[in-house]
Write the structure tokens for this entry.
Amino acid sequence: MEHELKTIHEAQQLDTQIIEKEKKLVSAPMMIEAMDQEIEELKSKILKEKEIIDELEKERRKKEKELDIDKEKIKKHESKLYEVKTNKEYQALLKEIETAKATNDKTEEDILILMEKVEELKKDFEHLSAQLKKSEKEFEQKKNKLLKEVETIDKDVRKLKEERDNLLSIVSKNLKATYRTLIEKRAGTAVVNLKNGVCLGCFMNIPPQLFIEATKNRQLILCPSCNRIFYFQEEFEEQ
């Protein structure tokens, strides 16, 4: 039994490595997805900003066109000033010219505001575009590195599983079944050490006599609290 307990303890060490590596295999696609999402959000932000810039530019062009038309109207009104024959007509025409000029001043002011907004948005757009280019490059490098690591980890896991299965092939059917059940039910830890009368799996005190028997590694002893398999390592006890 001592040899079998030592064997499943070695299998446990391999399973611990396997579980840690499998966590990385699971997290890698999530990390890639998160980076993908970050890039897509940045692209969406840039696209939205471009649409706003285009819309403001369209509005500016529209106002500039209106301004040109109104300026032309003012010129025509001003030329008519020399053709009117009554003071009433002159004053009315003069009023129209003043109103049109006031409207044009407001339009020119609107155009300037639009130009400032566009200029500000263009700077932000250029900044975001540069950030996107940099992020895409960094993302590609990280992704390639991550995929290579996944490939290596995947090979390691297969090799470790093969070593573990070879070890478990020499222990009894019942012990192997108990070990596999505990691995599944106890978050990947089936075999644990003891220290000062305490199970290092659940950290509960165990009866003194049971502790003494467990430190001999001569029989299969399970923790009364968590049911994990005890395997005592004296050098570990002294740490």
User: Anything to note?
Assistant: Strands lie at 191-192, 194-195, 198-199, 229-230.
